[in-house]
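Order emerges. As here.
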Amino acid sequence: MTVTTAGQRAELSKQAVQSTAWAYGSFVSGKFLVFISTIILARLLLPSEFGLIGYCLIAIQYLDILNGFGVGQALIARREKIEEAANAALVAGFVSGMLLFGLAWFGAPMLAAFFEDDRITPLFRVLAIVIPISAVGAVPSALIQRGLRFKAKFIPDIGRSVAKGLISIVLAWQGFGVWSLIVGQIAGEVVATLILFALAGWRPTRRFDRRVTRDVMGFGSHIISIGIAGAIMANLDYLLVGKVLGATALGLYTFAYRIPDLVIRNSNFVVGKVAFPLLAHVQSSQEELRLAYRTLLRYVSLFTIPAGIGLALIAPRFIDVFFPDRWDPAAVVMQLIALSLAISSIGHLPGIIYKSINRPEILNWMSIVKLIATGGVLWYCVGWGIEGVAVGQVGLAAFFVTIDIVVVSRVLSFSGWDTLKAIAPSLACTLVMAGTVVLLDRGPAPESLGGLLAIVAIAVAAYFAILAMVSRETVTSARKVVRSAMTRA
């Protein structure tokens, strides 16, 4: 068994934090722009218009799982014959993208019939253009991630957000309604794909290898099945709300989900981008895998848990400050979704472990179990409206995290007690922070942007002050690793 030295452990932590810092910097900048555009668009558009694009995005996300046959992640995991694998991935992406675009075009009327809204047909047909565009851009994106070049990923991510936000806002201001969101989505994807090719420094060649193509497609087949199950679970709530409760309810639910999704769920997505190639590099040593998993789990929880609980507590005041009264029904839903995503963040990393050690079949079987549970619970809960669906999400999150902890303990010899120790600092400090927010929110703080920012600032200060007291080692270690990593960025 490979022995990990103290120097190797320090280098691994440094690499993880440096890569995460750039990836998260890209995420924060891009999502801040999305947040600003959401505030503006919510004042220009109606909940039902958000619901219409919500219908289309549900179907697009299902189709996008098949896009490229999942070979982008296979490309990241490969250790040899990268050029041949990249060529195979590009061909698979282009072919699948065009086929899926055709499927979307001819299937649009069926989607409109399912949701009983004829306006969906032209919207979905136009939005489906993003499928082949994103398929082509997946290869340079995977090559950049494979090389842990997350600094380079900053530009296309920002470019996508700027293009999408600006074009959507301008068109909405000019009265184009839901079409402003459709055109903005397409423009953002075009800009990001062009920038990715410019930064990757890769151009396709004619070098192909049958064995490499077969290996890449085989890995991708597992990722597709995992992705389909994951997409169904991730969008089943939207599907049920849209079908049973209608476009306005879907618009409110989508809106309530958007802010927690920006803050918490996308944080997991960013960490996954870093963790997958990083863990793939150390897949031969279980000791190094445990080290990397423990490090990522601790630092991820330091953000996602307090962010989720904090957002759940301030959601009503947040909506009152930033949005018109028509969005008030989304407040309770936003609170519950933020809580569910905070819980779910603990169970995100185990799935990356299974893929990084070339055991995606574990994640595949777990996805099937989770899908069955999700369908049953949400079908039952939708009868209580969007609030009932959000309550169901909290219960499912707690159940799924329990399963994830049990399975990863067997695969990685990382027990539930180890998990609790890793997240203990964030749990303890979050309790203090939550108490601070509750006290301030009941106090004389005005219902204004200044009052909201004051509550947030004091709560964040209390969180880090307690963290420094109960786990000085965590703060000191994080400071040293970040400083060291940034000196080499």
Summary: The radius of gyration is 22 Å.
